[in-house]
Amino acid sequence: MKETFLRFSLRQRLEHLSVMILFLVLAVTGFPQKFAGAAWAQTTIRLMGGVEIARFVHRLAGILFAVLTAVHLGTAIALVLSGKSRPSMVPGRKDFADAIKTLRYYLGLSDAEARFDRFDYRQKFEYWGLVMGGLLMVGTGLVLYMPLQVTSFLPGVVIPVAKVAHSNEGLMAFLVVITWHIYNAHLNPDVFPFDLTIFNGKISRHRMEHEHPLELARLAGERPHTEHEPELVHDGKDA
Fold it and tell me: Which tens digit of pLDDT belongs to each residue from 159-190?
């Protein structure tokens, strides 16, 4: 029987699934509006039933994304403040040292690999990129959604600025996801062809030893389990 660890709780898996679905909806309904002059964009808009429907779906998905972001950040802060979770996503000095150590290892300048805890510096970079980018998209999206209300207390120039920021941040987020995230989640030799951990929540002992040795060592010290720390399960499956 192979040992597996529960790495992500049900709430975390549902959050990821919701973000994934909303991101796809926002991209499908947003890019045809950004590139409205392109033939493929006009075809996509026509297939969706017209630009008004595309805008309605885009705004609805944006509002749901804003609510999800607020719930996620509020829950994370509450769990940390109540002592039920560790601030494991907050970057520290070790992350910068790990990045340099990994670069030296890949360049053949050192034989020592960085040893990671629950999240490595690449995962933290991607997470905070999503959070900061998401906040920018939510903020600029609200400005574009309520231009009259916003310009009642802000100068009118904020509208075109918000439009440029919203459009370009959306494109950048899309490019980051299809390159950085797709590589780490699917094309990385350690997880190829598909990393199921964020969907079933489980990770094997072999991967824990290879990818999160410091976390595995801490678990061996019989520390109490919290929502954001994996627990050992035995189900005969290798995540």
Answer: 999 999 999 999 999 999 888 888 888 888 87
Measured from the Cβ of residue 139, the count of other Cβ atoms closer than 10 Å reads: 13
Task: Indicate the residue type of 135.
Answer: L
Can you give the pTM of this predicted structure? 0.84
pLDDT at 215 over 50: yes
List Cβ neighbours of 44 (8 Å cut-off, separation of 6 or more): 28, 32
Of 103, 150, 133, residue with least CA distance to 26: 133
Strands (E) in the chain, as ranges, are 3-6, 202-204, 231-234
**Chain centroid offset of residue 43 CA:** 30
d(CA 117, CA 100): 16
Strand ranges across the sheet with 202-204: 202-204, 3-6, 231-234
- CA distances to 63, 85, 133, 145, 173 from 138, rounded to whole Å, are 8, 26, 9, 10, 13
